[in-house]
Amino acid sequence: MTDRRLPLIPVENLTTEQRAVYDSIKGGPRAKLASFKGAVPGPLGGPFNAMLRSPSIGNLVQSLGGEIRFKSAIPPKLNELAIMVTARYWTSQYEWHAHCRLALEAGLDPAKAKDVAENRRPANMDADEAMVYDFSRELHDTKGVSDANYQRVLDRFGERGVFDLIAVNGYYSLVSMILNVDRAPLPEGVPLPLK
């Protein structure tokens, strides 16, 4: 992978508007996670570095991401599975690296993660995993969902769950685009997880 296109902005070089976004991210729900690299002092990496280029939009986008990650009607393991399906669809190496670990921590079987990485429908999914995988994959592949896949999510999680599942797929499509265009690098020594 080549160097990122948008260099990291040193904290001391942030404009007032950028600093407000920076502080919101550093003080938001992500900062409470031990795995969040932004919890340490210094510039923001990942998609947040790019979001600083347009502070008003960037702040709305990162705030939306916080809602989708931490307040969804879709349980964390399933939410992370939807993110992995999206990262795989976009071949977003950084997104996959960040969220595969979170999915495993939330209880997703590593064999199922491997199947998603290799563009295979995982074997032995439970009913909820299959529902989220099928809905998410069909949404990306066909730009819509069948009545059957819609009804499965509606019956299990209600209208809010349907919307939240659409939102997680849409939001992480945007994040994947940001990361891919910026060429956000993986941590040093980490091989590309997706072929």
Could you characterize what this model shows?
It is globular, with a radius of gyration of 17 Å. The mean pLDDT is 94. The longest helix is centred in the C-terminal third of the chain and has 36 residues, at 147-182. The chain has 195 residues and is mostly helical. The protein has two domains: 11-69, no CATH class; 74-182, AhpD-like (Up-down Bundle), CATH 1.20.1290.10. The protein contains eight helices and no strands. Helix 4 packs antiparallel against helix 5, helix 4 (76-90) runs parallel beside helix 7 (127-142) and helix 7 packs across helix 8 (147-182).
Gist of the model:
The protein is mostly helical and 195 residues long.
Tell me the number of helical segments per DSSP (H or I, 4 or more residues long).
8
Helix content: 55-70%
Instruction: Tell me the Rg in angstroms.
Output: 17 Å
Overall CATH class of the largest domain = Mainly Alpha
- Tell me the CATH architecture of the largest domain: Up-down Bundle
What is the CATH topology classification name of the largest domain? Answer: AhpD-like
- Uncertain stretches of 5 or more adjacent residues: none
The number of strands is 0
Number of domains: 2
